[in-house]
Design a protein that fits this description.
Helix content: 25-40%
Number of helices: 9
Shape: globular
Distance between the termini: 35 Å
Radius of gyration: 20 Å
Strand order of the largest sheet: 1-3-4-5-6-2
Number of strands: 11
Structural class: alpha/beta
Amino acid sequence: MNHADKNRTGELARNVAVALRFKHTQGRPEMPQVEKEVLASNYDRARGGNLHLANNARDTDLVHPGLYLRKALPDRVDVIERVIADGDRVGLLFRVTATHTGGFFGVPASGKRINVYEVAFLRFANGQLVEGWFMMDEAELLQQMGAKLPARPDGRIIAPPLPDQGEEVDAVIKCIEARGHLSPQDRNKIIAAASRSARAGGSRAPGHHHLRRGFQHLRDYCKARGTGAFDLDAAIADRHDKIEVLMAEGDEVWMRFSTGGTHRGELCGIAPTGRRVGVHVAAIMKFADGKVIESWIFADEFALLLQLGQPHILAA
């Protein structure tokens, strides 16, 4: 487990300890008691990890995987890879590992091992969780299960709404700059925020390493199908980003933002639809001497495909 700061103290250390306790006891006998202790009475699960699969199954008889997915994934173990804390927030990057032995929002048991990423942005008050926001790689999950999105009895495709939160990049940068004496973490936040605008030039160090690129599955699909290079800016020429969460600790910055616009150009063989689209993206950046040396980016491309009416192409 990689901590952005292994020596954090005080409230940050307490919040991380609560977050990890919450994760490690899920599915264990002590879970109900731990939930009573760590979840505030007004806890808001703002986004579930399997948002799209759950929405697709809502108001149908498609089989639900149970609390914390344990009916479908009884041997589930979450392997936490990265942890960050900043202010009242904690970020977790982990892999959900399990054997798929039960119905999963309509996907029948496959008996296959799964190992997929999920990211969590958690918010705390007085040592308790007041908000949880989760996003799992549902496209990869379906691929590993060897399945497509289950068909609803009514034949509908349930696309997520466009993100409606976040701040403009320039406003975020101005707010940080207004603090005056900027810490190295503040400066890294400014660079990370600017990467979502025309001010992005020169933010990466020579030899910058992509651990994962945004829309990775669609990039792989374009390459495998020979549909040309993945070019989101050409497909969505009016693409616009807004920053929802910006955290920094040690030499890392974590950012959650939305990206969207109008689909007016071909994308991975999908003809222009003229539809408005918008999805969430999680980015983890590592800095050295004011430059980004490493990045890990996870975009909710399954949401994009649902919005474009093409939820099956990655499983085809």
